[in-house]
Design a protein that fits this description.
alpha+beta; two-stranded antiparallel ribbon
């Protein structure tokens, strides 16, 4: 299996089924996970959710779940977190005007 570079990030060329954390997405873009999370809100893939205790958090939208942009995972401490489909999420961010480093003018 060969490797390809996405920005400064090396992934296998079979990344079509690769899911990554929002932190890893931030590393790909050279930005913080917080900023990438805001971009996902902007693109309609995340939204604010108010928990029963009144605290708010950002969660994937029904669209993100139904269209396969994201999947839920469980940490060893039983905390739920989300993994983002690498190719689909990069394409959605691109469509919203957020490009990988060095890809701003590439088509």
């Amino acid at each position: 299996m060969s490797k390809v570079m996405i920005g400064d990030f090396e992934v296998s060329d079979s990344s079509i089924d690769k899911f990554v954390s929002i932190t890893d997405l931030g590393k790909l873009y050279g930005e913080s996970r917080v900023l990438v999370g805001k971009w996902l809100v902007e693109c309609g893939l995340r939204e604010e959710y108010t928990q029963p205790d009144g605290k708010t958090c950002l969660v994937p939208t029904p669209r993100a779940i139904s269209e396969g942009y994201v999947k839920q995972a469980m940490a060893p401490n039983e905390r739920v977190f989300y993994l983002w489909h690498l190719d689909r999420t990069i394409q959605a961010l691109k469509e919203c005007g957020h490009f990988l480093p060095g890809q701003e003018n590439a088509e």
